[in-house]
Structures
1.
Amino acid sequence: MQNYDIIVVGAGPGGSIAAKTAAENGYSVCLLEKESLNEGGRYKACGGAIAWELVEEIDYPENMIGRIIESLELHHVDGYDFSKKGKGAVIWRSVFDKFLSDMAVASGVILKDRERLIRIVKIGDSYQINTKNEKYSTKYVIAADGVTSSTLKALKWPFFEKSNLILTITKEMKTSKSYINSTLGSDVVHLFFGIKNLIPIGYAWLFPKEEIITVGWGNQINLIKNSREEFKKFVALPFVQTALKNSAIEIFKPHLIPVGLRSQLYKENVFAVGDAGGIVDPISGKGIPYAMMSGQFAIESIKSCESKDRLDKLGTQYERLLDKNFLRVLKAKRTARDKIFDNDETLKKFLSLWEKYRSSEIVMRKLI
């Protein structure tokens, strides 16, 4: 039996930052990851767009960036186009996640990859975790293992409502850098909308990297009749056909994204962070920065409540930190999302506002 103060399950952005923060605060930490973390990391179906502020905050090397972005082009299938200016980056999640897990290890975290959680049970004040290789014991568990979290499923936490889940399809299409530059632009990502003629609640995207275009499509799962046929409607758009001409598929993968919170984010020394808690922007699907912050806040809650001998307030403190920083806005966005996607005219109004304002500003100022 290996004993740790904190065990983090899942070496994505939320898990790695939680582990790093815990180690820096003097806790013994084990980071469990079910997949193999080789030099290239592990593939994650994700567009990989992040704000430049995050690149600077973590000092992410430019040579690890797939493409630097200067604008977000918003296309509605009715023929309306909108352009949102702002610097960002498109990254490979495999490389980005490996960078963060390496930071955690450098801080003193014990990383165990190829260690899939098989069983977790609470015994007294501790949790026992079994993988196929080892047995672990810990006081605190950080569930950072995604929307279908094995940790929370084993603990019988309630799952997401179907209206809070988006099914995505991702294809990685190989082409040439020069062709991407000529068809999509050298520093542009593209989003596609259309309630009636494309996707009822969701959007599709073309995110260029060096010589790859990440082609994605996502719709609310309970509204999908035939995902492959609905995806074909997107790739049949003339703009998309031109962009993908002569490209070759390298990866095809479906994936779930939460767009609403789990009904609970904390229980008995277990914290849900990132996608495992549904801590994702319900409108844009942005999740990386929220995963990283929620992982940090989980550890800060432990540290604060231990120092005050108020472990009964762990859940309250965690949600207070989340609310203070972004959770209140995400909840408001979830309510606004239904209004935005009610009809195409409302959606186009939102897209026109999005050119000038942050989506959070549109929602909190009730501009729509």
2.
Amino acid sequence: MKLKTTITLLLIALAGFAFAQEAKSPFDTTMYGRNPAVGKYADIRGFKMYCETYGKGEPLLIIHGNGGSINNFLYQIPYFAKNYQVILADSRAQGKSPDPSDSLSYEMMTDDLNALLDNLHLKSCYVIGWSDGGINGLLLAIRHPDKVKKLAVTGANLWPDTTAVDPFVYKWAMNMNKTMRDSASRMKTPAPEIKNQLKLLHLLSYEPHITVEQLHIISCPTLVIGGDHDVLLPKHTMLIAQSIPNSYLWIIPNSGHSTPVYKKDQFNQVVGDFFAQPYRKIEGFGRFN
């Protein structure tokens, strides 16, 4: 198998899409992410961002993970579109939003999403983020707090080391990064696809760099989610929740990184309830309830 194909499949697998490696998977055949009836491009900060919108109601932004795209939320779009205006976009340098520049960071992608909301004339919205999308969700609440009403993140991390990431996954990501860079260095002129994969692998291996102190300034109610066998360690997920003033923590048993796929019914219901119900402080004798 060619290296580029291997990298792509492994990135997809890390985002939780074993299904995507099957020729007839629902992720290959869904209209989401390729729907000409609702798809459009927005000129955002020097590139064209592809986005789709479904449903009516209060706006809900859903953000995909590394190497992913809109269709990653096959199981969330129809559920939340019943009550919300669901907005999804292919992040910079991913999906149908190509970006030939050399740099890519979570801060760039977060500011892209903020600009998209401005482009759509939306002052604030609910937010769901998965994996890298969870990182972007945290940064959106930090960098553009007025834009986030409530935030639900699953499989997010603050920094890229083995205090946050499962050691096996960390070693795999670093090895893949080295293999890809060594291969590219032997090419006279690496193809644009290779350069793009290197940008995504850099994110996977060397970012983000969010401090606990930054989490302290998140003011919106936040639901922090992780599988008990996630690629992000449960203790790190707990740290994120404990560092956000108005947060709930949900560690899902018998679950890995792909909660929106393999635990879709639970995920949709719990996140939907979190958005619909007022956040409550649980203190004092309330802890006995």
